[in-house]
Amino acid sequence: MENQASVNYADGRFQPIIDKCEGCARIVETDNAKYCRSYVNPAAKWKLGFCNFATHAKPEIAVVKIRVNPLKAAKRASKRK
Known about the structure:
The longest helix is centred in the last third of the chain and has 11 residues, at about 70-80. This protein has one domain (about 5-80). It is rod-shaped and about 70 Å long. The protein contains 2 helices and 2 strands; from the N terminus they run ββαα. The protein is about 20% helix and about 10% strand. A two-stranded antiparallel sheet has the order 1-2. β1 and β2 form a beta hairpin.
């Protein structure tokens, strides 16, 4: 892991965090600006909807209900006995 003391966040490579990043444990504050410790451009991580580095938010898991054919289910159940 890189030594955090040697990283210069204000050198122009790192972009400041966006609103969705607030509350994350990976935020580093230097020179009155907040930067992400893990990613250079935090806005790009949130572009598709969710940042996989976020420690303060969990993705929602969609539950898909599968329709089961009752005739096939009855056949499978009778074979298990």
